[in-house]
Amino acid sequence: MKKGLTETCYRFFTNLSNPTRLAALEQLMTKPLSVGELAKTLGQEQSMISHNLKPLLECNIIAIRKEGKRHIYTANKETLTPIFSAIENHAQKFCPTGGTCLKEEKP
Amino acid sequence: MKKGLTETCYRFFTNLSNPTRLAALEQLMTKPLSVGELAKTLGQEQSMISHNLKPLLECNIIAIRKEGKRHIYTANKETLTPIFSAIENHAQKFCPTGGTCLKEEKP
DNA sequence: AGTTTATATGAATAATTATTCACATGAATT
DNA sequence: AATTCATGTGAATAATTATTCATATAAACT
Q1: Selected residues 21-40 of chain B with any CB under 8 Å from a CB in chain A
Q2: Which of A35, A51, A66, B10 has a Cα at 20 to 30 A from A19?
């Protein structure tokens, strides 16, 4: 890990360590969506979606484009795809019981 | 992203979204270390190191082996290397100003 | 210009997470 | 078996982060 990356990682991981933001990203990985569409899909208030999209945008984990009064957000797949893949791989290899492993110590 | 991965990701990212844990991982990426060695290197209390290693171990982000009274921890490089690489790549491409980008909206 | 629609933001509160301190456990040494 | 060394853990407090609500901004429509 290069010098300074710890700070970058911290902001990055903090950004992703939130269920609402992860759920939003999960949707955005499938297709670009507006704030209102995300709010509706996730069943949450618009202001909460806006609040949560902000830090993702600041870190360029998502991008924005404005179509009239609608703000369309897109996921940064270049960054997110390899990270989600790595975690998926980790889950398969190191969490075979799907969460139960969290309570056990490795043999 | 597969179903259920959101939850895994959440625990995973929560685990990594902490400066102490990241600093510990940064050390462990270079070589295996005991709790005491980590505490000394990071300039923090032993109990804090223990508290922070626990969730990393539970998610198998690190592994433990016991040598007498010393507990030696090792980083799960298979998982961590690709993730850190992806973030390093992200930082280079999307945070060219090294953190200042966090305050700006993309052009 | 006024109204509606879509999104963002500030400030207060609620919830979560981190940190510290005191102490428990357990292996090695005398 | 008592002591020392290394680590883990519980509980209290401190700090951070999330959520909500009220309101601001800004584009489109009448």
Answers
A1: 22-23, 26, 29
A2: A66
Give the Cα separation of B76 and B25 in Å (integer). Answer: 9
Q: Which residues contact B61 (CB under 8 A, 6 or more apart)?
A: B12, B15, B16, B25, B75, B76, B79, B80
Q: Global pTM?
A: 0.90
Six token digits for residue B77: 């490089």
pLDDT given for residue B99 in this prediction: 53
Give pLDDT, residue A95: 83
Do A84 and A103 lie in one domain? The reply is yes
Q: Does B13 touch chain A (CB under 8 A)?
A: yes
With contact defined as beta carbons under 8 Å apart, do A73 and A50 qualify?
A: no
Same domain, yes or no: A35 and A85: no
DSSP A37-70: HHHHHHT--HHHHHHHHHHHHHTTSEEEEEETTE
Shared domain check, A52 and A8: yes
Q: What is the mean pLDDT of residues A57-63?
A: 97
B107 is written with which tokens?
A: 């052009």
Q: Residue A100 pLDDT more than 80? A: no
Number of domains in chain A: 2
In terms of pLDDT, which residue wins out, B93 or A98? B93
